[in-house]
Amino acid sequence: MEPKFKQEIQQMMYIAGETQEVSVQTTKLIEEIIRDQVVHMLRIANDLAARRGSRVFSNNDLIFQVRHDKARVERLRIFLTWKAIRRTVKDSDEKEGFVDEADLEENVVAPADDAPAGGKTKLPTVTLPWDAASYFSEQVTEASQEDLVEITSNEAALEKLRRNDERTRDMTVAEYATWSEYRHASLTYRKAKRFREWCGLGVIAENKPNDDVMDILGFLTSEMVQKLTAQALKVQKQEALRLGEETAMTGEDRGSKTGLGGLFAEPEGLRKPVDKFSTSLLAVADDT
């Protein structure tokens, strides 16, 4: 059976550094691993909601499960903050007219020229119930532009930028153009019905209709695929070093023994893609 998200998963794998053509079997295995993780998260979220006496789970029931991974929580917070900003701008566009997105990005980090002296433009912020700020009766409900700059410049965001820089450093112009296009790959964006059927959302557990649950799940699944791929590539590289090879070529045909290549021999130095049956992906799958 063909994977339901074959194209999306292959694009996410490309973002993680797998630029080779991946087999359908490998894509299917990764999809099954991700689905198991999502189903597990939905069941826990449903249990957490039931403890509160609620029939539906919320955003916090998902984020609570990864609360110990501070870097991931911060990435989620940044993601939801930008979504709230876009929603706010969209609402203001409908009232005041069109605002170009490029202008918005410039104004996010620098106050407008006509802004009042000493004034601060207020922006939406994302708070979590287990944050220290939630212990106080009075809450700061909005963030300033300076706060947003600090949020988007924290260690989690910078680490993500460093990883992306390492992955794209040796890419050609064509590969980087493809990489930039594939960055928008998602299992949930404009695929809500297919995703719900795929993971059992609505059967295993139900979410609040107005929450950002679908976007959070889309964000987390994308990170899962990329992390799984990155770890598999790391193990594959370790295998090659352990075998005393400079590439991840497997097998011992006559060409590799004698150093002679035939007409249909693979180009020298070509890395094989991550494969379902290779120990690289199986080892990572066991640890997931």
Automatic annotation (TrEMBL):
Q: Please give the coiled-coil regions recorded for this protein.
A: none
In its UniProt record, a GO molecular function of this protein is:
transcription coregulator activity
Kindly list the places in or outside the cell where this protein is found, as annotated in its UniProt entry.
Nucleus
What processes does the entry annotate via GO biological process terms? Answer: regulation of transcription by RNA polymerase II; transcription by RNA polymerase II
Instruction: Name the major location.
Output: nucleus
Q: Which family does it belong to?
A: Belongs to the SPT3 family.
Q: What is the name of this protein?
A: Spt3
Whose protein is this, by species?
A: Colletotrichum costaricense
Q: What is the lineage of its organism?
A: Eukaryota, Fungi, Dikarya, Ascomycota, Pezizomycotina
